Amino acid sequence: MKIDQSSILAFLQNLLSGKFEIELEEELHGQELLSASCPHMHKNWELKFVPLQGSDEGCGIVVVSPGLVHATSPCHFFSVEISHYSLRIGHLSSPDCLRFFVADEDFKLNTLPELLAALIKIGGERRFLSTRKKLMSAILQHLFDLLELLHRSIDTRGTFKPLSKALEYIQHNYYISSIEVKDIADFAGVSAQYLNRICMSEKGASLRQLLIKERLSKAYELLLEDKYYIKEIARITGWNCPAYFSNCFRKHYGCYPTQVKEQR
Q1: Could you say which of 117, 149, 181 is where a domain stops?
Q2: Does 114 lie in the same domain as 187?
Q3: CB–CB of 70/27 below 8 Å?
Q4: Are residues 122 and 13 in the same domain?
Q5: What domain range includes position 238?
Q6: How many structural domains does the chain have?
Q7: Rg (CA), the chain
Q8: Domain match, 127 and 32 both
Q9: 15: which residues sit within 8 A by CB, 6+ positions away?
Q10: What is the DSSP letter of 105?
Q11: What does each of the 264 residues of the chain score in pLDDT, given as a tens digit?
Q12: 89, 124, 149 — which closes off a domain?
């Protein structure tokens, strides 16, 4: 589907008067995590709008809580990443993704995180299915109202500095193991050679080095949580080979991931 403000608003309006089903994303663990497609987590809430299986009408809405390890959905209309201060809408790794920023004076109007937390608290209890449906309708209506209220940040190619866009791409997509420098450059709207040159000039490191640094930083945070095995942390942060991850970690931090876990 086309990703622009009017198309998203029309989609939400049709959904409010149509059929939708709610699914609460479950966290991946063990072998399921290791074999999943691009397992990852976000600091923010995410709503994934997906086709309903076996139906040409309506839509499935998958709710992903902050910090929940989940897989990438291969087939979906679009996603919405939600925080108090911003909304990102579309295919989140695409340069056509819409970005809305909530100004300080509008901060108190954005209660989407609180509404989503209430939805998760209700969970899948059958006796509260009607309440859950009404609450999701309220979330969709609030999202619709916010999109009408907020001014879209200007985000056309050339408006933001290419390096800023490249760093944003790395921040949001570090977990994709197949990322190449060309993917980052395409998102920023410039050539890979040019982007690497300004990256070295302003950051003193190549794009590949910044990507590795971001992955290692996220991995370190997860090691401190002591919630996942090292091979799971490697997978969540975009490494296909745990041994290579461990070697890169040692070179960057001066110790192996196992030593960080042992210090906990």
Answers
A1: 149
A2: no
A3: yes
A4: yes
A5: 162-262
A6: 2
A7: 20
A8: yes
A9: 49, 59, 140
A10: G
A11: 778 888 999 999 999 998 899 999 999 999 999 999 999 999 999 999 999 887 777 899 999 999 999 998 878 899 999 998 888 898 866 767 888 877 766 667 789 999 999 999 998 888 888 999 999 999 999 999 988 887 654 444 345 689 998 998 999 999 999 999 999 999 888 999 999 999 999 999 999 999 999 999 999 999 999 899 999 999 999 999 999 999 999 999 999 999 998 877
A12: 149
The alpha helices in the chain, defined as continuous H runs, are: 5-16, 30-35, 112-122, 129-149, 162-173, 181-188, 192-203, 207-225, 230-236, 242-253, 257-262
Q: Is residue 10 domain-shared with residue 118, that is, in the same domain? A: yes
Q: What sign for the dihedral angle of Cα 103, 105, 110, 111?
A: positive
| Residues constituting the chain | 264
Domain membership of residue 242 (yes or no) is: yes
Report the C-alpha gap between 109 and 189 in whole angstroms: 34
Parallel/antiparallel/unpaired status of strands 20-24 and 59-64: parallel
Whether 154 maps to a domain, the answer reads no
* Cβ proximity of 3 and 91 under 8 Å: yes
Q: Read off the CATH number of the domain in which 256 is found.
A: 1.10.10.60
Asked if 248 and 216 count as a contact pair (C-beta separation under 8 A), the reply is yes
What residues have CB less than 8 Å from 160, skipping those under 6 apart? Answer: none
Single pTM value for the model: 0.88
